[in-house]
Design brief:
heterodimer, A: mainly alpha, 73% helix, globular, B: globular
Chain lengths: 357, 290
């Protein structure tokens, strides 16, 4: 987990080794970041707030997928199915029983955990490609069940969900959501960090790097694989529940295969095997279409294709994904690390050996 | 009777598409998840050539076929070649990204509305009586016949021609094949070309029958379970798998619930993955290595 520090910092006891924040510089940066995040809602307008909220929501899902794919090494093409499960649990409980937020959230988490178990079971027999395919199949099945519910109950356009009440406090403005989602996102991040530096995380990484070796070292491979799926699915379902409340609307169309691919893109673009990567990737993928839209307004030929923003988005998104896969497999985190190294080593330039890339 | 005809037609559609998955997987162990999009591109290629060669439908079809073949080879040389040595998963994700790119490009180039290449070619699509109480459209009949031809051609090609044997060798053991002097990249490119060609053919015929729209991609994706059920590296398997998936889909729609049509193949896929992950006719792969 820990990166090399510049110099002059040595850990001398175990308590120091266990600290989340190691150096004064890190604490300084952390406070600066928290202060920036805290002042943001007072400076930003509604549109920017919505963007930030979307990034937070996506971050939770991306962190969950990163745990599963980046750390435990189990590929999932059905992430949107899990999001849909959380959102539909929330929507259905709200519509049928008028359940409150404090009922729907744990219920979504429970459904997510159960589905995670189901999604995870094939991983005991299958790996690589076949596992990816089985999660893809499960995605379609969850989406089908959601669609079936919509049609049977006559909500063919979708389920409307009222804003939730938390302790007599109705969440209906961007700023309130910002606070809730920020807290949720930070909580998810902390859970991930702590899972990863404990036994569980080490077991997952051992499974990723070599299943047989992990087993020989005494890691209970099936149990930890299932645990990875359950943890990841639970987090994703919670994100789905928050998504349902945030949008105020649940519909199958929102959880297409493209959404799954977007989440995979977050993990790839961000950089496999890094939590920071998940956050960077989530921000990148969420903001990307808006950046494209903004860029298109400046281009001379934009008038001609202005009716097809979504097609331009698709094309550009595919290109970016290919670009990262081919030219920068380590993702944004790789770029970030190179910048860091450059500053650490400055003024000495070091040309990496061709073989060590 | 009509039910049987429907099953045969759907089986032919799936079979024609899924042999593309099999061809690529068999030689390079890459699952081409952009196959549905490549198929759509082939169909749009026909639309383009149809308006280009106004009064010559045969010429237009041939040109579109050549275009699809070229696209497949170009995809290999331009993109998949760069993924050599990367993990298989990275290559698969690359095909997914390619699919998204193609979807965007096709919509940009041709728009999102429904198109009818049949009318562009100046043909009609009469329905033909089969037996007492069943009918089949001419385009569907052509599709069934063509699927049979393609499969016969592929079997002959793989068994008897020099390039076909090379392709099988490359699929069985790339290292040994390369050492015997087989140009692997050439073989892979040919496999991609053929896969896209057959997929494009399927796309064209579906478009001739029922119009052309970007949603065609879903058919491509639904054909994938057929390939997997039969075994991803077996052509016979693709045929049998298509029959199973096609029959199940038609029967489920008829007797249970039309909404099931989009998921039925995936239910079968999941059942197959649980029971026999390598498929009915596939070779059992070495699954674990240290």
């Amino acid at each position: 987990m820990s990166r090399i520090h510049a110099s002059g910092y040595y850990r001398v006891d175990y308590a120091q080794d266990l600290r989340l924040i190691q150096t004064r510089t890190q604490r300084g940066w952390l406070f600066a970041a928290l202060a920036a995040l805290a002042t943001f809602p007072w400076l930003a307008d509604a549109f920017l707030l919505d963007l930030a909220n979307q990034v937070f929501l996506a971050s939770i899902g991306a962190l969950a997928l990163m745990l599963l794919t980046g750390f435990a090494g189990q590929i999932s093409l059905g992430h949107a199915g899990l999001l849909a499960a959380g959102a539909f649990t929330t929507g259905i409980l709200f519509k049928e029983l008028g359940a409150s937020f404090w009922v729907t959230l744990p219920a979504s988490a429970a459904v997510g955990a159960l589905l995670g178990l189901v999604f995870g079971l094939p991983s005991l027999r299958l790996r690589g490609l076949y596992l990816a395919v089985s999660t893809l199949a499960l995605h379609f099945i969850v989406a089908y069940l959601g669609g079936e519910y919509e049609v049977r109950r006559g909500f063919s356009t979708g389920i409307v969900v009222d804003p939730p009440q938390i302790g007599g406090w109705t969440l209906d403005s961007g700023r309130e959501w910002y606070a809730v989602l920020l807290v949720a996102c930070i909580a998810t991040l902390l859970v991930c960090i702590n899972l990863l530096r404990a036994k569980t995380g080490r077991a997952w990484q051992a499974i990723r790097d070599g299943e047989a070796v992990a087993e020989a070292l005494g890691v209970g491979v099936p149990a930890y694989k299932l645990l990875a799926f359950v943890v990841s699915a639970t987090m994703t379902s919670i994100a789905g529940c928050l998504f349902a409340y945030y949008r105020g609307f649940v519909s199958v169309e929102a959880f297409s295969l493209f959404l799954s691919i977007q989440y995979i893109a977050m993990v790839i673009v961000g950089g496999m095997g890094s939590l920071l990567g998940a956050l960077l990737g989530a921000a990148f993928v969420v903001l990307f279409p808006y950046a494209i839209e903004a860029a298109m307004q400046w281009m001379p030929f934009a008038q001609r294709v202005s009716g097809m923003v979504f097609a331009v988005n698709y094309a550009a998104f595919g290109l970016v994904m290919i670009g990262f896969l081919v030219f920068e497999p380590q993702g944004l985190v790789g770029v970030w690390r190179r910048i860091q190294d450059w500053f650490l080593l400055w003024p000495f330039r070091q040309r990496p050996l061709a073989a060590s890339r | 009777m009509q039910l049987a005809v429907n099953i045969v037609v759907l089986t032919a559609i799936y079979a024609l598409i899924s042999c593309g998955y099999v061809l690529v997987y068999r030689v390079s162990r890459v699952l081409n998840l952009a196959h549905g999009e490549l198929m759509m591109l082939g169909a749009y290629g026909l639309l383009a050539t149809a308006s280009l060669f106004g009064g010559h439908p045969g010429l237009a079809l041939a040109a579109a076929g050549g275009f699809a073949l070229a696209v497949g080879v170009a995809v290999y040389w331009g993109l998949m070649l760069r993924m050599t040595g990367e993990s298989v998963l990275a290559a698969v994700l690359c095909t997914i990204a390619l699919g998204i790119l193609l979807r965007g490009v096709v919509t940009l180039a041709w728009g999102a509305q429904q198109e009818y290449p049949l009318a562009e070619l100046g043909w009609t699509n009469p329905s033909i009586h089969v037996g007492a109480d069943a009918r089949i459209s001419a385009a569907s009949l052509a599709l069934v016949v063509l699927t049979a031809l393609v499969y016969a051609g592929l079997f002959a090609f793989l068994r008897h021609t020099r390039w076909g044997i090379r392709m099988r060798a490359a699929g069985q053991n790339p290292l040994l094949a390369a050492q015997r002097g087989i140009r692997l990249h050439g073989v892979y490119a040919l496999a991609w070309g053929l896969a896209t060609f057959t997929g494009g053919l399927a796309g064209m015929l579906i478009a001739l029958d029922s119009g052309l729209q970007a949603t065609m991609v879903t058919i491509g994706l639904k054909a994938f379970p057929a390939a997997l059920v039969g075994g991803l590296d077996s052509l016979v398997g693709a045929l049998v798998g298509s029959l199973i998936v096609g029959a199940a889909e038609v029967l489920l729609i008829q007797y249970v619930d039309p909404l099931l049509s989009d998921v039925a193949p995936f239910f079968i896929l999941l059942a197959m993955l649980v029971a026999r992950p390598w498929g009915l006719f596939g070779t059992r792969e070495e699954i674990d290595r240290v």
